[in-house]
Amino acid sequence: MTEILARLLDFVTTLAEFFQFGTKVYVYEKAVVYRMGRPHRDLETPGFHWTIPFWIETVQTANAVMATADLPSQSFTTKDGKPITVSTVVAWRIRHIRRFLCEVEDAESVLHDASRGAIRNTLAALTWQQIAEGGVALDETITAEVRRRAFRWGVEVESVCLSDLCSARPYRVFLASDE
What we know:
By secondary structure, the chain is an alpha+beta fold. The chain is built from 4 helices and 8 strands; from the N terminus they run αβββββββαααβ.
């Protein structure tokens, strides 16, 4: 008896989705309407929006408010040969919803790809003293480069801050081969 009720409830839920004539977009969301699987229009304003039922149009939403991401530490050598380790925090938001939903699998991956090279290229060209004294100006330089790189994926980077900067001691690990 319970199995019959569960199947009936599943059928009613599926039927309700089949006859859905609209969708609701919340204040903190942006959405893309897909018609027959292709992006048709963007929904960037909150409220109720009409859609064609029978799964002709489907809607995909994403949270569009400001978010932060702690990027993993990366180590490299400065211009004066000093090994350093840097951790960064990136503040970002979705700028172009269609680009973001159609071309990005994971926002964290976009931020990693855009940030790691920009941070390494910027800091590796400076000496330890210049990095230590860089402060806000250095953060703004890195932010501009990361913003430029992430824009093509629909992500707007608000700021990049160096959260941890320290001198690193390089170690070489030699592994014995299994013979």
